[in-house]
Specification:
26% strand; five-stranded mixed beta sheet; 3 domains; 417 residues; alpha/beta; homodimer; Alpha-Beta Plaits; Maf protein; six-stranded mixed beta sheet
Chain lengths: 417, 417
């Protein structure tokens, strides 16, 4: 069959049309197809309605080489994606005993009762490939229509089933079809805007076709994803690494906090473990978000001793010994209080490094001298104690200001290791 | 023009096709249209490509009464939604001086420089209605094509612009077109599964057409949304309230933690304020998530004094005086430690009510006696001290276990007020 160059994503589910759930599958599949170098020009959503699904299939088949569907593979009477697509491709459904055994054992393991209608999930279009589902009961299906030169991949709707099935089964299948492998490396950047990153890297990015360089943004962070295609993964990894080195040698390098890491907190936990140092936090405006983000990381208990959420001034005094006079004189949102908080938490918890935050997250509480978005971050370690002033945008919402304050604090902590 | 019965959502943006962003607009608009009683049978996404957009418009126009687009209204050369749709409806674009003045003053206010290409955002199809954008520069547009009996509403792509514009402008417009108003009330339920809720309420739900009763689920919670349509909002509110009363009188009533509230933490903050009581937390396995969720609520500083994230055993001893012997004898994940943590935090912070969590969030750290998902929640208040054991599913991921543990603790705190 010919090389796959374009794909469409067709999500099936009335719950999507009612807006009950957000279509993360379309975004996930699109991102992965972009990595594979396959273009996506359309995403569509239809309900559990065979007529409309058939029309959508017909339209899509005229425009692309690969159709990926999500949803409608379940056991109930309104799950009709497999039946409709099999009919579209002129294939009959055949009970697959191996799949049936998998489904039966899934029910046994999870202690649930298998009803008769669950068996229909083991019906597979003749000649199709099966994608095993380790996280649910509905298997995925790959149909290759050599005459029309179209491939269809059907996946179940729940993201925790769809994502691993695509990543570990459909993606290798698509790579095999293209005769090459893809490897990605990620550069994580904090405190430099997307446009600044792009300005600096434009000469590198403009001519990048293999490896490709794609920027992704989230609050305060830019992630550069470098993806290389080669005949084997060692070669592809090497190609990526060359680009990584080039990028690190530019001005962007100074803002890089990690490579192939998930988040600032993951990098912080990793480096703390490596250096054998312990960590503590004292939070006012971030109200526990820093501790929450660190303890999101499994295994953080090896380095994170604990934190104090000292929201009220009385808590700042009682838990971590901030001076009453300092609070009176400079106010809670001040350099001195931030430093005393970090120092106090470090001492109270016996940690090597401590960080603190005190600021105005809004929407209320701002003043002309200390507008919403004013945040002091305190740092205490064997290197000494200090505080850094952040001036975050007062136009942004409370959650953004809290997230940015926490990210800045975690980023500053990295510098103390 | 005829009554609007069906709509399609057409999102424009290459970043959606690349999977760089998740399409929350389609979900938001679908949910709101469902509330309005307008059916959505298709959602589609195309890139910033006039040809494909025109084809998608043509297909949609043959299937529905209302097309809502998002994206492609910006100032750059590839933002072509307005131009393409105006052409589709045979309308020319006319510079609107009022809109131009709005855009100019937006740039002045935010201290940014207005370039020439920003002026094209003030070009409006002749005869169209303008939707003001208070959060950005691109206005929305409503085109009514009386001949084809189709209405098109164009909105900008960023959700923080699209959502208020739809809610405050497009929704009243659509209600006026239908000659009625919609009012919703929400019942928030914790600790009862969706299927149990539906089983109990089936007789009520099956015959519900006005008001409608729609369940929404999120981790451990069920929200019932009751929506009534009537000639005025007082009447609609009254119709909702009758259903709310009926639901509260069923077995479901006991699991209701709030009505027309956002979350357990919002309800907790509201009731603490009402009763003039203060609150504190001591967290081990939830690692700051409880404090974070409470301080997500603006104004929580009036009732939340602070919290201790006592991740290490040493922190439990130092910060909130948990006995070394108790930790040795029963382990950190135990009834006694949970109670001592809550009592210790309440005392250390001088709060009226304190809650604590200590458990195994996984994926590591489980044992046959204390598997992953074992969590003790401690409560201390003037009513006394106690602890409750949760056995959350060890098959679920760390973040789910932490979220459920925090929700249970917050829910239990409600009972102490």
């Amino acid at each position: 069959m010919k090389k796959i160059q374009s794909a469409e994503i067709l999500c099936v589910g009335t719950e999507l049309l009612l807006g009950d759930i957000v279509n993360t599958n379309a975004a996930y599949l699109s991102r992965k197809l972009a990595e594979l170098g396959i273009s996506v020009y359309h995403q569509s959503v239809v309900g559990d309605n065979p007529e409309r699904l058939k029309k959508a299939l017909f339209e899509a088949a005229g425009r692309c080489d690969l159709i990926i569907t999500s949803g409608g593979l379940g056991p109930t009477y309104d799950d009709l994606t497999k039946e409709t697509i099999a009919e579209f491709f002129g294939k009959s459904l055949v009970r697959n005993e191996e799949v049936l055994a998998d489904i039966t054992s899934y029910f046994a393991e999870t202690g649930r009762i298998m009803t008769e209608n669950n068996k229909k999930q083991a019906d597979i279009p003749e000649g199709a490939l099966v994608i095993k589902n380790d996280y649910g009961t509905a298997p995925g299906v790959i149909i290759e229509d050599e005459e029309r030169e179209i491939t269809a991949i059907m996946l179940p709707g729940p993201p925790r089933e769809l994502e691993p099935m695509f990543l570990y089964e459909a993606m290798p299948y698509l790579m095999k079809r293209s005769g090459s492998v893809l490897v990605s490396r990620n550069i994580n950047i904090f405190g430099m805007g997307e446009s600044s990153v792009e300005n600096i890297l434009r000469p590198l990015m403009e001519n990048a076709s293999n490896p490709t360089i794609a920027p992704y943004c989230k609050e305060g962070e830019v992630r550069l994803r470098i993806t290389a295609k080669a005949e084997n993964s060692e070669k592809a990894y090497e190609m990526c690494s060359e680009v990584v080195e080039k990028i690190l040698s530019t001005e962007v390098g100074a803002a890089v906090y990690g490579i192939d890491t998930d988040s600032i907190e993951a990098e912080l936990v990793r480096r703390l473990k490596e250096s054998g140092k312990t960590f503590a936090s004292a939070e006012s405006c971030t109200g526990g978000l820093i501790a929450k983000r660190i303890t999101d990381i499994s295994g953080s208990s090896a380095v994170f001793l604990g934190g104090c959420v000292t929201y009220a001034n009385s808590a700042k005094e009682k838990l971590i010994g901030v001076c009453h006079d300092t609070l009176e004189k400079y106010g809670a949102v001040s350099e001195d209080v931030a430093i005393q908080m970090a120092r106090g938490a470090r001492k109270a918890l016996g940690a090597d490094i401590a960080i603190s935050t005190t600021g105005i997250a809004g929407p209320d509480g701002g003043s002309p001298e200390k507008p919403v978005g004013t945040v002091w971050v305190g740092i205490s370690s064997e290197k000494g104690d200090r505080a850094v002033l952040l001036r975050l945008s007062p136009r942004r919402e409370r959650s953004y200001i809290r997230t940015l304050a926490a990210s800045n604090a975690l980023f500053l902590a990295l510098g103390e290791i």
